[in-house]
Each structure stands twice: as C-alpha cells, then as structure tokens.
Amino acid sequence: MVFDIDMIKKVYAELPGKVEATRKMLGRPLTLSEKILYAHLYAPTTAAYERGKSYVEFAPDRVAMQDATAQMALLQFMTCGRDQVAVPSTVHCDHLIQAKVGAEQDLAVAIDTNKEVYDFLSSISNKYGIGFWKPGAGIIHQVVIENYAFPGGMMIGTDSHTPNAGGMGMLAIGVGGADAVDVMAGLPWELKMPKLIGVKLTGKLSGWVSAKDVILKVAGILTVKGGTGCIVEYFGEGADSLSATGKGTICNMGAEIGATCSVFAYDQKMSDYLKITAREEVATLADGVKDHLRPDTEVYADPSKYYDQVIEINLDELEPYVNGPFTPDLAWPISKFAQAVKENNWPEKLEVALIGSCTNSSYEDISRSASLAEQAVAKNLKVKSEFTITPGSEQVRFTIERDGLLKTFDKIGGIVLANACGPCIGQWARHIDDPTRKNSIITSFNRNFAKRNDGLASTHAFVASPEIVTALAIAGDLTFNPLKDTLKNEEGKDVKLDEPKGFELPPNGFAVDDPGYQAPAADGSNVEVVVSPTSDRLQLLAPFKAWEGTDLKGLKLLIKAKGKCTTDHISMAGPWLKYRGHLDNISNNMLIGAVNAYNDKTDSVKNQLTGEYGPVPATARAYKAANIGSVVVGDENYGEGSSREHAAMEPRHLGVRAILVKSFARIHETNLKKQGMLALTFANKEDYDLIQEDDTFDINGLTSFTPGQPLTVVAHHKDGSSSEIVANHTYNEQQIEWFKSGGALNVIRAQFAK
Question: Boundaries of each Aconitase/3-isopropylmalate dehydratase large subunit alpha/beta/alpha domain copy (predicted)?
Fold first, then answer.
C-alpha cells in the first residue's frame, strides 16, 4: 500500500509552478535544496531569504516520532486543543527495547515492561489520527525510508537521524517534540534558512569501500559542528551511482557533523527502490517532475557559485575509514588506523562487533557482510569477537531470513537482536567481566560518544562500515587491515579475505508477513487516552510559568560544564529511557554526565546554600525549593547529538533560567527556546574563564529584549567583585514571545483557546 498518496500527488502537482516562481524571483538557477525549501514555505514570499540569517516558516508534509520522544511530544499535543493531527504523522516503537539475549526474548520482555507506555502511544495515536508502528516493526528511519520518504518532500522527525530520508531525495530534519506539536497542530514550523554545502562525488565505489566511508570521510573534513546550520547536498555522477539505501546511510550520519539535513537528487536508484518497496505509483509521479527533483544543470557546471562551500570526493580513490574513539569525526583511513591504534595505546583486542542499526541495516549492507561471514566459514576462520546483527525493520529481517543470510551469521556465532535501536542508543545489557577495564568495540552505527553504547567510560567505541566491522570481528584485532593482511585459520594456514559482495536490492524482492503497522481509528472522538495519576512512567504536563516581566536577579551557578557536553551528557538515554514520559522522574538524570570544570567530576557540584557537593539534579531542586533560579555554563557545541527535548525540558522543570555557552548545536538551541529558556552565547568566548564556582548572576536587558540586541550577564563573585559579560542570542520576535509566555506551547494553547 502507498501511504498518503493524495498528499504526495498534491506536492508533485504544485512543485513545477513553485519551482518556476522561485527561479524567477531569485533570478538564477536553483539547487535541489532551494527547490524543496521554497516549495514548502508556509506562505508565499516575494523576496529571497538570506541563508544563515533569515528565519523562515515552513509547512512540512509529514511528522515522524520515535517512542521515546513521542511520549513528551504527544503529551504536549494533547493540551493544544486539536481533534486530529493536521498532517500525516506516525509513531514508531523502537527505542525502548533493550538488547540482552536475542530478538525474540528481548522483544517479549520489552512488550511486558513497557506495556503502559505502548498502550498510551497506541491509544493516543488512535485518537488523533496517527499511524502506529508496533514494537518489533523496526527502527523509525528504516521504516520511513521503506514506506514514507518520497523525492522532493519535506518532513520533520523527533529524532536527530531523521535526515536518513534524504537518501530518497527528501529534506528530512530532526527536531524536538515541541516543533512536532507545531506542525501536527497545523501551525508553521520555523527554521533559520540553512546555508548550503555541496559535496561533489566523482568516480564509483569498489571493493571494500562503501557509502558509509563517504560520510566517515566527510565527518573528518567538517568535524562535529562543521555542518551546523547547513544542508549538505550531494551531487555528481558518483552520487547517482550509489544505492538509495547507501545514500540514506550518508544522510543519516550527517547528523554527526551538525547538519540540518543532507539530501541527494532523484535518480534511477531511488526509482528502483520505490518500485521494490511497492511504491511504483510514487516513482511514476516523481518521473513526471524529475527535472524539479534535481539541481539545475547550471549548478552542476559551476557549483561554487551556488553553494556556500564545496567539497569534492573521488570515490575511485576513497579508502575505507574507521572513526573514533569517543567522537564520530576522528577519521582514520584504514591504511593508517593500525598505526593510530598503537600510537594512542587504544586496546587492540576487539571484544564486540555490532552491525545494523538505522544507519546501516539495508539489504545491501547485510548481504555484503554475510559474504564475509560465508568466507570465514569456507576458509576455516574462527570469529574472534562477539558479533551482533540489528535488522532495521521487520521487512528487512524477514527478507534476509528468507534468503538465508541469518543462517550465515548464525554459522559464525552472530546474535540477531530485535528490530530496534538497541546498543546504538545505550539499550544494551552488555556482558563484560570488569566494567572499568579499557576495551574496544566497533559498530556500523552513527555515534560513539563515551558511554553511548554500553554506559561504560572505559569502552573505546569505533565506527565503520558493516563490511569493515565484520572483517574486524573475524580478526578480533583492531590493527587488522582486511585489504592487505592475512589471518591464520584453524589449520594454521594464512588466508586473506576477498572483497565483500552483495546485492543493492533483494533479487527476489522484499517480503514480510506482518510489518507491524496499526492504522488509526477513522473517528477518534470516543477513544480514551488513560494516564494513571500514580504512574512513574507517564505524567500529564502542567504549563510552565510565564516570565515575571523583570530582569532576572540572584541566579546561582548550577554547573560550569567542561568540554564536550552532548544531549547524552545532559539527559542520558539507556536505562533512563523508561522515564521519557514522566518529566519529574527523568529530571533526576539532568546533567549527571557533564564534567564539572572545578573538580573534573561528573554529577558533583557545589550547593551554594550549604557549601556541600552533591548531584546536579538534587542541587537544582534545592535552589528551586528556595525559589532561586539557576544558570548552566557550557563549552563549544553545547547540546550536540540527539534531538531529545528532555535535555531542554529538564533544566526548565528544575528551575534553570539560562544556559550560557560558547556555542550551541542547532536542535538543542531551538529546544531551549521552545521551552521558554534563555539560550545565550558568550560574545567573547574567553569570558567562559571568568565564571567562578560561587558565582551569582543577574541577567539584564530582558525588559527591552529585542532581536539582535545582546543581553548583559553580571557574574557576582564571592570576593565581592563582579564581571560584566556580553551575552549574544539569536531570538526573533516570535521566539521572544515564547520566552515571555513561558514556552511555545503556552502560545499555541492561547491561539486555539481563542
């Protein structure tokens, strides 16, 4: 079945006229991103928007939510006054399934453990017209690319890897739940007009090199914040040569460079994928407007004239890459990786290798990895590392089982996990003899921050393609280079692995018995959404208080975070996922992973009321109980990583009034604004060093809070002196209204109440 075909027909019917009008207005040829962006304006414009500066209101075609973030998004949506969602929307149950034993048992345990949450999500989806994908159906991004993504569309999703759908030519952008509420309520969605980075791909992949290596190299070039505020648009004959799912892999991991999203132009590979996933009607419609689903020819001829930055990569010369540890932009070509391992004294022994996830669980990925597993059996090699496989969807799992690939992995001791996020997001009950022992793992996932996969700071996590991960699993050694090294088999012979081989698409097509989809009720008016008042997993929301109307005085320093502070540091996943629908309970994990600049410890800050050191959440609660607001100070790219809005809601709930940092990651800054927080940056980054442990803050200028006008933060020090700090912000008029009203949801609620 083709979902939402009438919506897709409408987009394509209007696209040629909108593109032509935009081309005429701008007076020049257009990139693909510009065509899609201007075709999705909430209201027409007669003037061009300035990249990187103009705030623009868009009308996305659809919304997707994973179960961990959907809880808070839908708890907010319940309060806004609508009977049904205004655009096609879906919920996907993929985050709450812990990998422990294997797919069947882990799924059964998850369904039992999370019954209350699944029942809530199922019933609220049923009530408001939202498609519901049950636990076991698959990971949100794989399910979206198989069922919903279409070239030229625009969607938002409450997960930072929503850009995966860019592999199908869609602008798909990760957002916080409050943004999703806007769109589901039929309101405009606001985004600063992105800058454009063009990546020209020439040549063609061969041998051991895969699409994953393209983004691993790009991450090394741009770093974890090099794509912030930008759309990365891939083009060239090299781009057209990549499979649709390979393109998806590249777009998925664009989140690791901070990109708003990434996108590829419509081509034959996308058409083929639409057809094999039972969407031939969409392929036919796309073919009818294909010139509007690609950059104009003049853009190809002179890309530097149309993109803010251009990167060129020759796929003929590309090597496999291994990135890490502890950050996804530390990029090592395989030819230099062994040396890096030795020089940095990283543990050479590979203990666990994990393939799959939303980034790399396509049929192509699995079949190429399976070809290496077959070689291991045929060449009498014993696999040295633990090895797990995470299928991206039930459709992928069913098809690879039908085609015998799961049996192949079974022969080398591979464990198939549930069709869910699992170890990629910390939902992994890892078996290890000593949790403090330095050890190495490698995954085909997208993120490898400290503690990300197994909660252990001692784990050195590396990221590579499924092929390289599988080869290293066979070797059990990070210094092994499968392109040139040999392995000693069980007979004592030296054998070499041949290049992996696979299929872009299943030769016999996809198949599935039960994809796991539940359609909503045609009329949800009588559907009851029940949330127990005594539940420790779900909690109905009360509106945050509006701004007092004065400058803020006497705020206490809660924590001065040192170094990398991602959303995993601010609001950990793993075991905390079960509280994603209960704001007060999950707030007990607030900033417990952030490093205190004054003692280099985590979850240990000074309580200025008692002089004692204690957990961050407890200290915040003490200030809140005393009716004292607090301030969090942070470093560069604060809030990078996941889109989780809990990292903004928790500080808001516990009385934090402002976050003052050197720079923000895009989604987190927006999330803070949506919750009525002050997201401020040091005008002079060196002023970070002025902040002292016993500081009390005044924030001045709020009574004349204006776009483009800095605020003043006065840090009063314990010795009686003070430092005056200029604090920049990026608030526009609407966002200032969010702050004054106590949050964007309060503004929405007031609009629907009229």
Answer: 34-476
Catalytic residue among 262, 357, 385, 642: 642
Q: Is 642 a catalytic residue?
A: yes
What's the pLDDT tens digit per position in 300-313?
Answer: 999 999 999 999 99
Q: What is the dihedral of CA 421, 409, 206, 508, to 10 degrees?
A: -90
Tokens of 575: 């075991």
Is 294 one of the catalytic residues? no
- For the record, the structure tokens of 50 come out as 């300035």
The verdict on whether 95 is a catalytic residue reads yes
pTM: 0.89
Which of 62, 141, 447, 580 is labelled catalytic?
447
pLDDT tens, residue by residue, 148-205: 999 999 999 999 999 999 999 999 999 988 899 999 999 999 999 999 999 999 999 9
Q: Would you call 447 a catalytic residue per the annotation?
A: yes
Task: Describe the strand order of the beta sheet including 331-333 as a list of residue ranges.
Answer: 331-333, 321-323, 459-463, 439-443, 350-356, 386-390, 415-416
Report how far residue 743's alpha carbon sits from residue 672's, in angstroms, rounded to the nearest whole number: 9
Identify the three-state secondary structure at position 165. helix
Query: What's the pLDDT score for residue 754?
Result: 64
CATH superfamily of this structure's domain 321-486: Aconitase, domain 3 (3.30.499.10)
Residue 102 CB partners (closer than 8 Å, separation 6+): 415, 416, 417
Domain with CATH 3.20.19.10 in the chain: 552-753
CATH architecture designation of domain 552-753: Alpha-Beta Barrel (3.20)
Domain(s) labelled CATH 3.30.499.10 in the chain stretch across 5-314, 321-486
Catalytic residue among 94, 179, 182, 603: 94
Q: Which of 40, 62, 92, 95 is catalytic?
A: 95
Sign of CA dihedral 49, 52, 55, 60: positive
Residue-wise pLDDT for 16-38, tens only, equals: 999 999 999 999 999 999 999 99
- CATH of the structural domain 5-314, one choice from 3.30.450.90, 3.20.20.140, 3.30.499.10, 3.40.710.10: 3.30.499.10
